[in-house]
Design brief:
Blueprint (H helix, E strand, L loop, with lengths): L35 E3 L2 E3 L6 E5 L7 H13 L4 E5 L3 H12 L5 E5 L3 H9 L4 E4 L7 H14 L3 E6 L5 H7 L4 H17 L5 E6 L3 H14 L5 E2 L7 H17 L5 E3 L6 H14 L7 E5 L10 H12 L6 E6 L5 H7 L2 E6 L2 E6 L2 E7 L3 H11 L7
Parallel strand pairs: 3-4, 3-10, 4-5, 5-6, 6-7, 7-8, 9-10, 11-12, 12-13
Antiparallel strand pairs: 1-2, 13-14, 14-15
C-alpha cells in the first residue's frame, strides 16, 4: 500500500531498496524477407522498420522541397518519397538529391520517362503504380534502368487504381484483386531478372488493406511497405493507420511504413514513430508515458507532459520516461521506466532505473526530468 503523507510527499523510504528486474522486451517475430538497400537504409530481413513520408511541395520548387526534406529528417524520417509528375519535377529531382542526405524515392504515375529521368538523377528508389504506368515494355525499361543503377523499385498497388481487366474479373477491389495486380508486375520484374522489389497493397479500407497484405505475406518473401492510403486528417488518419499498420506489425508483417495524413509530413513521421514505439519496435527516441488524469490529480500534468515532449522531441536516445499524476499507479509505473516521476500534491518522487532518488517540487519537474534524460546512458551504450 502506497502511503502519501499529509505534506504531499510519497515516502522515499518505501522505494529506496526497490529495484525491479525489467524483462527483456521481446519484439514480435518478424516475417522473413529479402533485404533491399534504399540509399543506405536496409529494408527487410531483421533490419529496423523504417518510417517514410512524402513531400507535399511542388517538386519543381527545389528550395521548398529541400527545406521540407530537411525538416522531416530532423524529426526522424528514414526515407522520403517525392512526386515526379511533370517534366519540371523530373528536371529538378537531381538537384534535390544533391542537396539532401535522406534517401529519396521518386513517385511515378502515368509517365514512365519521368522514372528514367529520376533514376539518372540519382534517386535511391522508384515507386511505380502498375494500375497506370502503361504497357509492359515501359515497365521493362524502368526495370533495366534501375538494375543498372542498383536501386530498388516498389510496386505500389492501390485499390482505387487497379487495372481494368482485374476489376472486371473480381467485380470490385478485393484482397485477391490487389494481390493479383501486385504479382502480375512482380512476375514481369522477375522475367527481367530484377529481384530488388518491395510491394504495397494499400486501400482506404482498413480491413481490405490488412487482408491484402496478409496474402502477400503468406505467399511471398517480398519486403512490404505498409500504409492505409488517403487515411484522412490527423485525428481520423492516425486511428486508421494505427489499427491497420499496427495490426500487421503485431503479426510480424511489414518492413517500412508510411502514415498518410491530410497534414504536414512531420506529423506523418511522428505518428509512424509512435506506432512503432507502442509495439516496442522502435527505441530511437524518448518515449513519454503519462496517465490520462482524473480527479486524483494534484499537479498540472498537462503542462508538464507538453513541455517535456516539446523539449525532447529531437533527442535521438532510447529512453522510457514515465510521468504519473497520483499515488495509485504512479510509483509502480515510474519505477518501471528508465526515468520516472510519481507526483502528488505539488511534488513528485523521482525514479532512475527503478530506484527512488529524491523528491522534486512541481515547478522543477520538467527541468529535472530533462536533466536526467540528457545524462541517461542506455544499456546498449554501456
Amino acid at each position: 500500500m502506497i502511503e502519501v503523507k499529509e505534506n504531499g510527499f510519497i515516502e522515499l523510504e518505501q522505494f529506496k531498496a526497490v529495484k525491479k528486474e525489467r524483462p527483456v522486451n521481446e519484439k514480435y517475430p518478424r516475417r522473413k524477407t529479402r533485404v533491399l538497400n534504399v540509399g543506405g537504409v536496409p529494408m527487410g530481413g531483421n533490419s529496423p522498420i523504417s518510417v517514410q513520408t512524402m513531400t507535399k511541395t511542388k517538386t519543381h520548387d527545389i528550395k521548398a522541397t529541400v527545406d521540407q526534406i530537411h525538416r522531416v529528417a530532423e524529426v526522424g524520417a528514414d526515407i522520403v518519397r517525392v512526386t515526379v509528375n511533370t517534366l519540371e519535377a523530373a528536371e529538378a529531382i537531381a538537384e534535390i538529391v544533391k542537396q539532401t542526405k535522406t534517401p529519396i524515392v521518386a513517385d511515378i504515375h502515368f509517365n514512365y520517362t519521368f522514372a528514367l529521368k529520376s533514376i539518372l538523377g540519382g534517386v535511391a528508389g522508384v515507386r511505380i503504380n502498375p494500375g497506370n504506368i502503361g504497357k509492359r515494355e515501359r515497365i521493362e525499361k524502368v526495370l533495366r534502368a534501375a538494375k543498372e543503377r542498383g536501386i530498388p523499385i516498389r510496386i505500389g498497388v492501390n485499390s482505387g487504381s487497379l487495372e481494368k481487366d482485374i476489376l472486371e474479373k473480381h467485380g470490385y477491389p478485393t484482397d485477391e484483386a490487389l494481390f493479383e495486380s501486385a504479382m502480375r508486375h512482380v512476375e514481369i520484374a522477375h522475367d527481367c531478372g530484377f529481384e530488388d522489389i518491395a510491394v504495397s497493397v494499400k486501400s482506404t479500407s482498413v480491413p481490405l488493406m490488412i487482408s491484402a497484405y496478409r496474402l502477400i505475406a503468406e505467399r511471398t518473401d517480398i519486403p512490404l511497405h505498409l500504409g492505409v492510403t488517403e487515411a484522412g486528417t490527423q485525428r481520423v488518419g492516425t486511428i486508421k493507420s494505427a489499427i491497420g499498420i499496427g495490426t500487421l506489425l503485431a503479426e510480424g508483417i511489414g518492413d517500412t511504413i508510411r502514415v498518410s495524413l491530410t497534414d504536414e509530413p512531420e506529423k506523418e513521421i511522428e505518428v509512424g514513430k509512435e506506432i512503432l514505439r507502442s509495439l516496442g519496435l522502435s527505441q530511437r527516441n524518448v518515449e513519454i508515458i503519462s496517465c490520462p488524469t482524473c480527479g486524483r490529480l494534484d499537479v498540472d500534468l498537462f503542462s508538464i507532459v507538453n513541455q517535456l515532449e516539446e523539449r525532447t522531441k529531437h533527442i535521438r536516445k532510447p529512453v522510457k520516461v514515465s510521468i504519473l499524476g497520483c499515488a495509485v499507479n504512479g510509483p509502480g509505473e515510474a519505477a518501471d521506466a528508465d526515468i520516472g516521476i510519481a507526483a502528488s500534491k505539488g511534488k513528485g518522487l523521482l525514479f532512475r532505473k527503478g530506484i527512488a532518488i529524491r523528491h522534486v517540487l512541481e515547478a522543477d519537474i520538467v527541468d529535472e526530468l530533462y536533466k536526467e534524460i540528457m545524462e541517461f546512458v542506455p544499456e546498449e551504450f554501456n
